[in-house]
Amino acid sequence: MKKFNAFILSFLITCMVVTVSCDKNGDIVLFSINNDISLGQQVAAEIESMPEQFPILDRSSNIEAYTYLEGMMNSILASSSVTYRTEFPWKVNIIDDPETLNAFATPGGQIYVYTGLIFFLDTEDHLAGVMGHEIAHADQRHSSKQLQRQYGVSVLLSIITGGDPGLLTQIASSLGSLKFSRDAEAEADDFSVLYLADVNDYACNGAAGFFQKLLDSDAQTQPEFLSTHPSPDNRVADINAKAADEGCDTTMGADAVSDYDEFKAALSN
Q1: Which of 57, 131, 227, 252 gives the lowest tally of CB atoms within 10 Å of its CB?
Q2: Whole-number Å distance between alpha carbons of 196 and 78
Q3: Neighbouring-strand partners of residue 111
Q4: Predicted model pTM
């Protein structure tokens, strides 16, 4: 017992004194929240400087579409289950690439959604489920942890302080296909359910609709990043099971389909 207590004391001292942070799961994350924000903002700036790879839709020319998507993001962020909803400078961007079914998040809450994914999905509930999943990757600091594993803390800190711009470009280019563990993917799916259950604006199992659509579609349309993720059929079952455990609403609103069709039409103009 004495050894156990000494371990707990040592762990708490590490979390409070040493220049590391401990997330709510007890993992030691060698990045602070401010580091997450700084890295995310630098990556976002790099992405904006790469219009050929990331053709981001201009906000001033697509006000209606951005208003819709920002409203969805802000609705999800109202969930009490989002840990850093006030700390992170959350922002959503639309990448104009109708051939790519993807969305991704940087550390610190920069969210990117491809038009290919938006057009592929049938309802706003499905998109809200995917949005919740990506918010969870940032909020649970999966993106930060994975980048630390992949590149090392010292390298990432050097990028924040202005070193190695080439590596910053590499990180920005690879974020859309960042490989998370199965546990991280499952956790992001679970939190997507929790977020949507809290705000009660969308079917809480909305993310399951995305994976079900993939299962029902031609294999050629399936995104490359799914090759490193748990299989879609398992995720449909797990997301629906989580929704059942939470007892949350899995029905879509009466105007959900028409509202989503208007959103897609705004993007098509």
Answers
A1: 227
A2: 10
A3: 92, 105
A4: 0.86
